[in-house]
Backbone:
DNA sequence: GCTCATTGTTACCTATACTCACAATGAACT
DNA sequence: AGTTCATTGTGAGTATAGGTAACAATGAGC
């Protein structure tokens, strides 16, 4: 904590950078005609990630926690993805309260297109960095992500 | 470019991280009763930065370029800041088209409160990093910011 | 003086995420 | 049984941040 003066500008840079990344991502998704928004893209990848790690499709609440948003925000995203046929709401036989979100064939296809768009956006932003620098950045981000996982609906 | 597979996750982490930063920033601004939004905060600091480097107050177009948004977006932000008395629209005597944005005393006061909020938000997010790691991160972000400055209203 | 580029704005739309309130359901404890 | 309480998802409404398109006013060049 000997040089706290650097944190403000550092935060600025992070925010500006991510604004660019978000815009590039959105642009790529439009360009390639994937037909989804960045937030929907994030949900789809979270969905895929959950399937790989748990086997069963996630509940709305699972997605909300993973995405670090309130459950209500997930509803809107799933609504849009369901309308465009990328996901499917499936009632859970074990509990009639929960809804499982399944990936459709169309959704799987979108996922692979989406990965290309995301990689292109990342590439556009990260272009100035060498592989080594990217590795270092990745390590730092890992450290940051592990540290401060405070969800918005914390009850403190 | 030997490990492009890492870029996708890297982009994810960057976006998630900045979502946290943005939320923390907003939270801090509310907590301390500064009475402005994160985007307004960014505009105020850009304004201050311009004054330090140019002496004269910036035009709307200058702010738009610096903030990397379309001029229309600046209008809304300045509207809000003018209503709350943080800035002042001043017609330029040299050209009746341009409007100079000046900082009021209230705005200067907000700027110092704002800096505290921003530092606190950055500190909350960057807590897991040592000073040395922050320096490294700062260097990487510098490299990234210099590289890809493509404004949204590019005419390509 | 006519044409054209610049500057900011009015009007409208989209995306994201929030709060609050609520209905349906499950669980737990009389 | 039934009553109370927590969980789960959603409807309604709001705020923030940004974008496009059209336009009026102005300045500049021919």
Residues:
């Amino acid at each position: 904590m000997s040089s706290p003066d650097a944190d403000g500008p550092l935060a600025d840079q992070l925010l500006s950078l991510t604004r660019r990344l978000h815009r590039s991502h959105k642009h790529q998704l439009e360009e390639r005609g994937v037909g989804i928004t960045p937030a929907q893209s994030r949900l789809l990848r979270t969905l895929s990630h959950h399937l790989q790690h748990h086997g069963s499709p996630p509940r709305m609440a699972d997605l909300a926690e993973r995405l670090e948003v309130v459950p209500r925000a997930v509803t809107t995203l799933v609504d849009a993805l369901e309308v465009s046929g990328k996901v499917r709401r499936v009632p859970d036989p074990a509990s009639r309260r929960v809804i499982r979100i399944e990936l459709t064939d169309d959704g799987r296809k979108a996922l692979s297109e989406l990965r290309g768009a995301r990689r292109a956006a990342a590439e556009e932003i990260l272009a100035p960095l060498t592989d080594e620098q990217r590795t270092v950045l990745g390590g730092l981000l890992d450290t940051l992500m592990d540290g401060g996982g405070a969800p918005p609906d914390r009850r403190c």
